[in-house]
Amino acid sequence: MSSSATPPAARRGTRMAKLVFALCWLAVLFDGLDMFIYGSVLPHMLESKALGLDPDQAGDLGSYATFGMLIGALTAGTVSDRIGRKKMMVGCVTVFSLASGLCAIAPNVTTFGLGRTLAGIGLGGLLPTAISMVSDYAPRGRGALIVGGLMTAHHAGGILSAYVATWVVEPLGWRAAFWFCVIPLLFVPVMAKAMPESLSFLVAKGRTDEAQRLATAYDVEMPAVKARRPEGAGRWDALAGLFRGKQWTQTLLYWLASFGGLLLVYGVATWLPTLMRSEGYDLGSSLQFVVVFNLGGIVGMLVAGRAADRFGAPRISAIWFLATAVSVYLLSIHMALAITFLVVFLAGVFLNSAQTMIYATVAIRSDADSRATAVGWTSGMGRFGAVFGPWLGGQLLASGNGDWGFTAFALTGLFSMVFIGIASLRKVPLAEHHDTDRPVPAAH
Question: Residue 61 half-sphere exposure, CB side, CA atoms within 13 Å?
Answer without folding.
Answer: 29
